[in-house]
Input
Amino acid sequence: MVKERSPMSSSAGSAPLLRFEPSGYTPAQVRSYYGDSGSGQIAAASPYLADVRSVLDDAQVWLGEYQVPERAAIVLDVDDTALSTYTYGAATDFAGWHDVHPFAKYVMSCQMQAVAGVPEFAHWAAERGFALFYLTSRPDQIHQITLQNLLEQGYAEPAQLFCKPGTQPFPEYLPALVEGTSSHSTVAFKTATRAHLQAQGYDVIANIGDQQSDLEGAYARRTFKLPNRMYLLP
Ligand SMILES: [Mg+2]
Output
């Protein structure tokens, strides 16, 4: 029998590309933080969105102080930075991240909503002259779907959207990205991609993501961490 391969699986079809770990919060604590009293949606008045707003405000202060140099850039993660997985999380009681097929189906449905305030932030930054790059561990096979979801949620066409290559040959700037090894980690992939941007003359003024693995490594002047109490992605 030929096993169906999900685009969220690795090219070997075995280990998923994304290795979710529990956040340490109970489902009730997560719902409370996101202001969800049963709707399965994030509430506008939630502690979560207040924390998101606070981080975006900090980023705007930081970026606002810049006389924007040529090729100044901002790097944004996608899941739970630009687009929210909350509705999927709530529907699976925050335990569905390992169910590769349902999660892939959800991602490919293109129905993910923007994290409130982030499209406006992105437009503000673009108007100031920052080039916007999206950098996600989503596999390359769903590059177009990801872009479509971003655009439908009010984001402008980015300078580029980088997804994680699943099959060799990898791009030249990802020489160490060997599947099944630690060099295939999110940190290795994202750091190498930011190094690639720098090699192209870009100066990443701000790198914004919801996971430490989005932000570790160099090649950004400052990092901004958005909250995520649903899962960890080391
Ligand atoms: Mg993320």
User: Anything to note?
Assistant: The pocket of magnesium ion is lined by residues 77, 79-81, 209-211 (CB under 6 Å). The radius of gyration is 17 Å. The first strand starts at residue 21 and ends at 22.
